[in-house]
Amino acid sequence: SVDLSPREAAVPDVHTRMQTTETKRRAAGGGGGSWMRSHPHPAVPIAITVFLLMAVSGVEAIAEGQNLRANMVAEHSRRTFRTHDPNMMNFANPMVDEIAASISSRLDMDEFVASTRETLEEEEEDYFREIWYDRNTTKIHNICEENRSGPAKMNLTWSEPGDLLLKIVGNGVVKGGYNMFMAPGQAKGRETKIHVALYIESMSSFKAQTMDFEVDTYLAMGWFDRRLAHNCSYPILVTSKVISDRIWQPDLYFVNSKFAYLQEVTTPNMMVIVYPDGLVFKSMRIDVTLSCSMELKRFPMDTQRCPVTVQSYAYVEELVNLTWFKKGDDFPLGVNTDIRLNDMVITRKEYESCSNPYPMFRGQARWSCIRAFIVMRRLVLFHIIQTYIPTGMLVVISWMSFWLDPRASPARISLTITSLLTLTTMSNGARQDLPQVSYIKALDIWLTFSQGLIFLVLLEYSFVSFYMTKRSFDCVHRRAYQHKKLRSSQSFNSKSEEDRPEVTQPQSIEEIPFRKPSSSEYDEMIQPPSIHLNGVKHRNSQSNGHPPYSLSQGLSKCANNAAALMSATPHAAAHIYNKFDFTKPCQKCSLNNERIAKKIDHYSRMIFPTTFILFCTIYWAYYTYTEDTVVETV
Q1: What is the mean pLDDT of the chain?
Q2: Rounded CA separation 72/475 (Å)
Q3: Dihedral sign, Cα of residue 135, residue 139, residue 144, residue 147
Q4: Taking the mean position of all CA atoms in its chain, how far away is CA 579?
Q5: Which of 114-128, 385-399, 468-482, 614-628 reaches the highest mean pLDDT?
Q6: Quick check: 163 and 242 in contact, CB under 8 A?
Q7: Distances (CA, A) of 541 to 64, 85, 537, 545, 551
Q8: I need a surface site. Which of 73, 166, 175, 333 has the fewest CB within 10 A?
Q9: Where are its TM segments located (predicted)?
Q10: Is the torsion defined by CA of 224, 227, 230, 234 positive or negative?
């Protein structure tokens, strides 16, 4: 018995057809037994009958009977057919084989191949699974010897040398035969479907500055070229460009490639396999640098969708139609599981068709195009360690100035300025590997907010320093005392010190206009009080027109001025000089200003950390729990 595949089992039983034919022949001849008894030499009429049947079936049917499937059907028919005359067995069996093959091929092969073709088109994944022959195939080239021909093998365990194809293709153009300049289906007005697959062996890191990446990939493509169908049991392997260049091949290229070349160590990494049914499989290893227009608004928490676009350069879509070969997880885009990128991880792969009309000098045309997307997510740990943590530490260090003495201006300014300059340097270093885009990135938001926070720390100390060094010469305290002093000085010359009337303070101090005292009034205010001896008022002054100052008074005034200059604050030497000396700032106002400065530092210790913690919470919550809308990039 012969094991038949499901497709071959679908062929109608030839034994039943042969029995029907034998019954009709017997009826026409008056019975098979009487016909044989009436002829002493039965071999001659049988041979004549066989040749007549062969002439009716035609030479084309005999040629198709050489097909592999027809031979298998014929073998099945030979084993199941039984003749009535044992003497005819040795002579009739070879002829019956050819008749059965011709009849089955003539009646059933067209229907069988057509149904098979429809099934294969519906099940795209089974397109290349089994060996099958197109009904439009008219010639199978006998290029292998009988010991190397027969049932074709499915698995590639052996191969025939590539020079056998020279018997078919010649120099590329054979008169009445193969033509390397025509697509396989072009002569019959049909398109040639090219199935494409990629396998990425290695991949380099994605460069955001140049917006590209490099891949070391295997480009595989398959198509049917029935003109190359042969009778060999094993496929024909072609590794020489001399022979492969004489075979028609699709002119594919990478649309978004910047640079690409074929690996040629130690030999050109390319092979072409031609199967017995005309299936051509081509594979090559290439290095290609592909452009990827990245969207960096969420950098470094972004997701990139980089395309790999393949298109036919010269053949329009009506001649060559590209499609992805989809089968399992490794097709159409397989990735080496050992690939480890520095800062990216592949999350998924997507596929689509991208055929669009192109305007030309005359009219327009469509070229078949397919595109695959490699979707990758950036690993943020590197940026957290190198950027986020150091900048956050600088912001926290700048807050230490809130706990320093407000009088320590050099320490507070140095700490804040150093933090700001260091953060600026780190920001420039983090951005130097990024392109100069016109939109704000997530990293820019973090760095800008950190810089702004440190700048506000410096601005806060500016207000603190302002209140700490503020001098108040014209204040409400001085206005009230000056008004009282002026009123008292006017009555001082006419009355004694005991009889001086008390000057009432006005209801509103702000209503008293401030006037700078004259030189005489100023001298009167700073002179020591008069001394009464025996009822006579004496002043500590000299007659004869000398100035009303003593040596002790001048030394005391000089000491007060020197102490005020040497003190850190205007009120430090308040116990030395007179608090009503208008040449010195108001001590009460200075104390109030100092309290205001300390309150600013006190509130800043709470406001700045709270603001930064709130910002960090919102920032990381937004970029962690919100989905990144991946924009299609070509």
Answers
A1: 74
A2: 121
A3: positive
A4: 74
A5: 385-399
A6: no
A7: 150, 174, 12, 9, 11
A8: 175
A9: 43-63, 380-402, 445-469, 606-625
A10: negative
Q: Strand, coil or helix: what is 563?
A: helix
- The encoded tokens of residue 597 equal 């400065």
Beta pairing class for 212-224 and 192-203: antiparallel
Q: How much is the pLDDT for 44?
A: 47
Contacts of 560 (CB under 8 A, 6+ apart): 573, 576, 577, 578, 581
Task: Give the CA distances from residue 184 to residues 138, 232, 246, 436, in Å, rounded to whole numbers and listed in that order.
Answer: 14, 20, 13, 49
Number of helical (H) and strand (E) elements in the chain, helices listed first: 17, 16
Contact 198/374 with Cβ under 8 angstroms? no
Q: What are the residues whose beta carbons fall under 8 Å from the beta carbon of 21, sequence distance 6 or more?
A: none
Q: What is the dihedral of CA 262, 267, 272, 276, to 10 degrees?
A: -170
Q: Which two tokens stand for residue 44?
A: 């001659």
* DSSP conformational letter for 400: G
Measured distance CA(220)–CA(129) in Å, rounded: 16
Other beta carbons within 10 angstroms of residue 86's beta carbon come to 7
Token pair belonging to 240: 């020489």
Q: What is the mean pLDDT of residues 353-382?
A: 92
Give the C-alpha distances (Å, rounded to integers) separating 239 from 116, 433, 625: 32, 43, 53
- Extract the tokens encoding 67: 């097909």
Beginning with the edge strand found earlier in the chain, give each strand of the sheet holding 369-378 in spatial order.
252-254, 303-312, 369-378, 344-353
pLDDT top residue among 234 and 120 = 234
The C-alpha angle with vertex 481 and arms to 476 and 482, in degrees rounded to 5, equals 95
Give the tokens for residue 453.
């926070």
CA atoms within 13 A on the CB side of 519: 0
Q: What is the average per-residue pLDDT within 206-217?
A: 90
The DSSP bridge pattern shows strands 192-203 and 320-324 to be parallel
Q: Residue count of the chain, please give it.
A: 634
Match 């208008």 to its residue by tokens.
Answer: 582
Burial 365-392 (b: 16+ CB within 10 A, else e): eebbbbbbbbebbbebeebeeebbeebe
Counting Cα atoms < 13 Å in the Cβ hemisphere of 359 gives 1
| High-pLDDT (> 70) share of the chain, % | 60
Strand partners, 202: 216
Q: Please answer whether residues 68 and 151 qualify as being in contact, where contact means their C-beta atoms are separated by less than 8 angstroms.
A: yes
Query: Which one has a higher pLDDT value, 351 or 50?
Result: 351
Q: Is residue 375 classed as helix, strand or coil in its secondary structure?
A: strand
Exposure string for 514-530, b = 16+ CB within 10 A, e = fewer:
eeeeeeeeeebbbeeee
Residues 6+ apart with CB under 8 A from 401: 411, 412, 415, 416, 457, 461
Q: Write 159-163 long-range contacts (CB < 8 A, 24+).
A: 159/234, 159/235, 159/236, 159/237, 159/273, 160/232, 160/234, 160/235, 160/236, 160/237, 161/236, 161/237, 162/236, 162/237, 162/238, 162/239, 162/240, 162/243, 162/244, 162/272, 163/243
Amino acid at 204: S
Alpha-carbon torsion 465, 468, 469, 472, what sign?
Answer: positive
What tokens appear for 397 in the block?
């260090």
- Measured at the alpha carbon of residue 268, what is the angle toward residues 265 and 270, in degrees to the nearest 5? 130
On the 0-12 / 13-18 / 19+ scale of CB atoms within 10 A, 485 is middle
